[in-house]
Design a protein that fits this description.
This protein is mainly α and 367 residues long. Helices cover 70% and strands 2% of the residues. It has a two-stranded antiparallel sheet with strand order 1-2. A hairpin with a 4-residue loop joins strand 1 and strand 2.
């Protein structure tokens, strides 16, 4: 059975690839919203769309549920007590709440400035928001905190908002998981998520189920060792599901959910292979520290780069679209990793605060 140190190392290896997956999810759509109308490109290549769908709507869709699972696992790892919970809650103010507020404020300011400049106004349409200058108090509250809307203005931070809600609900979750209700409670959440029966705006169904599943996995047991043994068969099953789902994306067979269910243990097994390769382990662990910064800063930068690329290059063929599909995320991720390293050297305290890394030892057991 993997030791705590091995599990921590494998989580470190997972962080950056999962963030890359998130970027590819957001890079999938070829319709670009503008302040007036939209700009889009079309193609009729089955294989180009197959590849794009296979990655963004298939493999990459495992990333966010797996992040929630890891978060639940780390939060509930170790003994539970009111004192430990209060300590963890205080730490989450620094690792979650402060970065959440900062990046949403920064995104709001960026949209407000860009929408006030004629040359950039056209490219800074926020599809679910009216122009910033006409915001009411409730609009600002929703933009900064995502209270009554699916996403705050920094859309990727819905993950942090839902995670904060689950952290607050952790005592209730702990009570349900220790009163011989763990199995029925987790199965109920699974069914609600799998069949898309969820009346609550946030936390979302996938957030709730996978966070609680992570909490269950944090309890002593041999399930992680079992997953490693079954890993090759699970991964072959995942490949088959991905091919089927990418070939028939409109199917009603819950293939999107099955890909996630099978993908999560498959990804975990792959970390076991990666950890055996010293160069690969060193490479991915070295990038792990930049994961939160890439997550936080990739939007709206990705939106800007995509709009400029599509405007300047006007891709029309399938291969041009496929090239941009890979090149835009590659350029952006490389730029953000370099920017993170430079900023970390120039202003380490500031970067530590806005990414929560000053209070989030990578892979460490939560206190």
């Amino acid at each position: 059975m993997p030791t705590n140190d091995q599990i921590s190392s494998r989580i470190d290896i997972l962080r950056f690839p999962l963030i890359v997956g998130v970027v590819f999810i957001h890079n999938y759509n070829t319709t670009i919203p503008l302040a007036q109308g939209s700009m889009g490109v079309t193609h009729n290549s089955f294989w180009v769309e197959f590849v794009r769908f296979f990655i963004s709507e298939g493999i990459a869709r495992v990333a966010v549920p797996l992040f929630f699972l890891i978060s639940g696992y780390l939060f509930f790892l170790g003994d539970w007590s009111p004192e430990r919970y209060v300590n963890k809650l205080q730490r989450r103010l620094h690792t979650l709440l402060i970065p959440f507020i900062f990046w949403n404020l920064l995104t709001l300011a960026a949209f407000a400035i860009a929408q006030s400049i004629p040359a950039t106004k056209l490219y800074f349409a926020a599809t679910v928001w009216q122009p910033i200058y006409s915001f009411s108090f409730s609009d600002y509250a929703n933009a900064l905190f995502g209270i009554a809307v699916p996403y705050p203005i920094a859309t990727q931070f819905w993950f942090i908002r839902d995670l904060m809600a689950l952290v607050v609900l952790a005592p209730v979750i702990h009570l349900l998981l220790t009163r011989k209700l763990a199995l029925p409670f987790t199965l109920a959440l699974f069914c609600l998520w799998f069949f898309s029966i969820w009346p609550v705006l946030w936390p979302a169904a996938d957030a709730s189920f996978f966070f609680c599943l992570g909490a269950c996995l944090s309890r002593p047991g041999k399930i992680l060792a079992i997953l490693d043994k079954l890993g090759p068969w699970i991964s072959v099953t995942l490949l088959g599901l991905l091919i089927l789902y990418s070939t028939f994306p409109e199917s009603k067979l819950y293939l999107d959910k099955l890909v996630i269910v099978v993908g999560a243990p498959s990804f975990w097994w792959l970390t076991g292979l990666a950890i055996e390769s010293a160069p690969l382990k060193s490479f991915l662990t070295g990038l792990s520290g930049a994961s939160f910064f890439v997550f936080a800063a990739h939007e709206p930068l990705l939106m800007i780069i995509r709009k400029l690329s599509y405007k300047l290059l006007s891709p029309t063929g399938g291969m041009e679209i496929l090239a941009l599909y890979f090149l835009i995320p590659a350029f952006l991720i490389a730029f953000l990793v370099i920017a993170h390293r430079c900023l970390l050297k120039a202003m380490p305290s500031f970067i530590g605060v806005v990414t929560g890394s000053s209070f989030r030892p990578v892979g460490a057991r939560p206190r």
